Amino acid sequence: MDLNRKPKIGFMLIGAERFQPLGEGTADGTYKERKAIEKQTYLKRMEQFADVICDEPVYTREAAEKAVSRFFNEKVDGVVVCFMSWAEDFAWIRFLRELPPMPLMLVSFVRDSLSITDTNDENQFVDFLSAGALVGFQEASGSFRRWNRPMSTLCIGTLDQVMPKIKTFAVAAKARAVLRSTSLGLLACYNEAMWATYVDPYNVFMKIGPEIHFLSVAEVVDEIEHTDDAMIQEIVDKLAKKFKVYPNVDFAKFHASVKATYAMEQVAKKNGIDLLVLNDIDTVLFKFVGLRPGFTPLDPNEKMVTVPEGDIGGGLATYILQMLGGKPANFIEPFYIDHENGGFVAGHAGPNHYHSGTDENTIIARDERFAKSQWKHAGAPFAWHVFPAGIKTMLHMSEKDGKMKMVATLVECLPTKHYLASYSHANFRPLHGTPEELFQKICENGVTQHYGIVDGDHLDELEMLAKLCDFDFCRID
């Protein structure tokens, strides 16, 4: 699954059929010619962030139906429609009826300035008619609400005001489309210690889109047995050269951890998995593999997202953030509040994307948490990562009453040294208020302890995605 592809957006402009020939011979041309130029202005801006499917402005029922067919056949992520002036509404209403359920945004562009002074001049009269987008927007809004299509939104403003909103809509529409084509693998089961993280697989498929495949530890064991040791050793050597390795690391167990990681990734890829949710504290995994795989993703450019503890909600949060951010996302669990310093500490054991930041952000270290356990490869090393500093979007996802919910906020990840053994981690602080106030607001929504984080501010895209997918959304600013 290509998480970084551009959104694919259908764009339809509606004009007035009876206005088309007006203005012939004037300095600025006919209404139809003026609207063709206007179309290119909009397209030039939209094509900076989306692949746009757009024909000539629509003036007839037949053209509206043609647009519907093209948008459906081209499998666009969503559609943006703009009334360019007053227009007969038969094409618009036909379009609303025929367009299959998909994200739809009605927009109206306001001119930055006007130069209409005397409409006795034919050129200015046609410009007056052409500038009447507000009339069309009002007229269109009635049917827009009357049809009450799901996944619909609208906005009005200048080009500079509206384009960021269209971009947010486009990115969210793409995220919805990607989720509907995603394959999610659960290896091998939910976490029995954390019932609150359970979701209904059928509901996830129906409401969000991913197919859930249940993978087995037996498949991983078989893949381990058929994996070439020499090839694994090359990967071990490469990792050891790239990252600092602690002196107490057992290289035989290092090899075993990389081999198990490779095998797990291969099993997932053979099953077409885009998001792998690993129950990394499953006793079956420890009994037959002897460790929890500690080096996924082996390839820094790996598109598959892997998260621990069998939490599908946490996995979806991380997957969505990696898609929106275009950078590695991490899976965290806030551990405790550092009251004195106005922050909190968060991270997680088990697999976490460790290729962000610089090479110094990652150390190959022994898994101290299981170093004294009875398992075959007790203490096998893992990629111990501190998250790079910067502003992060933090997102929680879980299910309540058959509906997915999102709780999202922005936090600052502070420069952090490695100090929590066996946990990829960092120190954080809220952008506003105290950590106590932040978690009061978060927990009032009812959450679990798992979140995804990624660089940048993606709250607007998340809010729009929640709207398009009918999730409950809580934004904590």
Beta-strand content estimate:
15-25%
Which fold name corresponds to the CATH topology of the largest domain?
A: L-fucose Isomerase, Chain A, domain 3
Q: How many domain modules?
A: 2
Q: What is the strand arrangement across the widest sheet?
A: 11-12-17-16-15-18
How many helices?
A: 14
Helical fraction equals 25-40%
Q: Kindly state the mean pLDDT as a whole number? A: 96
This entry's quaternary arrangement is single chain
The unreliable regions are none
Count of individual beta strands: 19
**CATH architecture tag of the largest domain:** Alpha-Beta Barrel
Distance between the termini: 32 Å
Biggest β-sheet description: 6 strands, antiparallel, barrel
Identify the CATH class of the largest domain: Alpha Beta
